[in-house]
């Protein structure tokens, strides 16, 4: 936020998206579209100048359109927002939405967003905390669309999670602004040698792992298994993802896409169907992270095909809980990350 606002003065606004999570700091939670921001707002622990844009959520398009006939309106609306808002310094995105659904954008989305940012002199910030370090198949997810952001943030996999570390990278154009300007920023443990020295070690291990071809092979196997799973369970409305980063969105009815739970239920005390399924899976040795509407499928990069099969077998049984409360239809499960006109 500081880099964007200082380098783009007098512009100061940042556009984020509703399905997003960008961290727990005052700036990070302000950028966040999910319910965690609501409580920070109530405590008056947010910053001014953040606006929210519609998501590139093809399964539930906020514009009510379908891919192939939509003209990528979710991206084009950003141009409208920038021009109408004025004073926009940056757009911040998760290349593939993380906690809030593993939402994969259409292939045209980020090239168009990049073009809109360039035409309006707005920075593009990519939050690759969850998608970086081969989680989505590439070293960084933005590589899938051949788009380079102006700022990139990453953490988690940067050290293989052996030590905590966060990284912010900037293009030469952005970084050079601060050759003549003061950038007053730092933390007690910034540049800690133990954290820093673990990064090149982790990178070397990633290189070795990717060279074996195991993650690439298993990601295709995982995709097939998830698609097969959806064919067997009427509670799965949509299967979407890339690499080792997938979502199963659970619904009561595939035709109407009625969800079991909504955003407000996450912290509202309502029982969550995803939590019920995950609890049943845990009884049989499978841990799954969840959100109010999706199951998170994000296995370690070292997982093998037979281990995927074991996990799917457990999940197959656990999903019967949601099936028992879902309504049969003639509609097949959606595969919203498979794009074709």
Quick structural summary:
The chain is an alpha/beta fold. The protein has helices at residues 2-7, 26-31, 36-42, 73-85, 109-119, 172-177, 193-212, 214-232, 273-283, 305-318, 320-323; strands spanning 13-17, 50-53, 88-93, 123-127, 151-154, 167-170, 236-242, 245-253, 258-259, 294-297.
Description:
The protein is α/β, with parallel strands linked by helices and 341 residues long. The chain folds into two domains: 205 residues, Aspartate Aminotransferase, domain 2 (3-Layer(aba) Sandwich), CATH 3.40.640.10; 110 residues, Aspartate Aminotransferase, domain 1 (Alpha-Beta Complex). Helices cover 34% and strands 15% of the residues. The chain has a six-stranded mixed sheet with strand order 2-1-3-4-5-6. Strands 7, 8, 9 and 10 form a four-stranded antiparallel sheet that branches. Helix 9 packs across helix 10. The longest helix has 20 residues. The radius of gyration is 20 Å and the shape is globular. The chain starts with a helix and ends in an 18-residue tail after the last helix.
Give the low-confidence spans: none
Question: What's the tally of helices?
Answer: 11
- Assembly state of the chains shown: single chain
| CATH fold-type name of the largest domain | Aspartate Aminotransferase, domain 2
In whole angstroms, the N-to-C terminal distance is 37 Å
Assign the CATH superfamily of the largest domain. Answer: Type I PLP-dependent aspartate aminotransferase-like (Major domain)
Radius of gyration: 20 Å
Largest sheet: 6 strands, mixed
Please indicate the percent range of residues in DSSP E strands (runs of 2 or more). 5-15%
Q: Any idea what the CATH architecture of the largest domain is?
A: 3-Layer(aba) Sandwich
At the first level of CATH, what is the class of the largest domain? Alpha Beta
Number of strands: 10
Bulk shape: globular
Determine the mean pLDDT.
96
Structural class per helix/strand content? alpha/beta
How many structural domains can be distinguished in the coordinates? 2
Order of helices and strands: HEHHEHEHEEEHHHEEEHEHH
The helical percent reads 25-40%
Strand order of the largest sheet: 2-1-3-4-5-6
